[in-house]
């Protein structure tokens, strides 16, 4: 179970960082 939890946490962190970068790039492009 710990391996699955750490993998899910890594996936969540990666998706959050990707989403944040995508939103940041869109804001920079809009300005």
From TrEMBL:
Pfam family name, one: PetL
InterPro entries per the UniProt record, alphabetical: Cyt_b6/f_cplx_su6 (IPR007802)
Annotated localization: Cellular thylakoid membrane; Plastid thylakoid membrane
One Gene Ontology MF term: electron transfer activity
GO BP, sorted A to Z: photosynthesis
Keywords from the named record: Electron transport, Membrane, Photosynthesis, Plastid, Thylakoid, Transmembrane, Transmembrane helix, Transport
Family classification: Belongs to the PetL family.
Quaternary data: The 4 large subunits of the cytochrome b6-f complex are cytochrome b6, subunit IV (17 kDa polypeptide, PetD), cytochrome f and the Rieske protein, while the 4 small subunits are PetG, PetL, PetM and PetN. The complex functions as a dimer.
Name of protein: Cytochrome b6-f complex subunit 6
Species of the source: Cephalanthera humilis
């Amino acid at each position: 179970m710990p391996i699955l939890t750490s993998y899910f946490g890594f996936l969540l962190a990666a998706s959050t960082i990707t989403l944040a970068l995508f939103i940041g790039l869109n804001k920079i492009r809009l300005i």
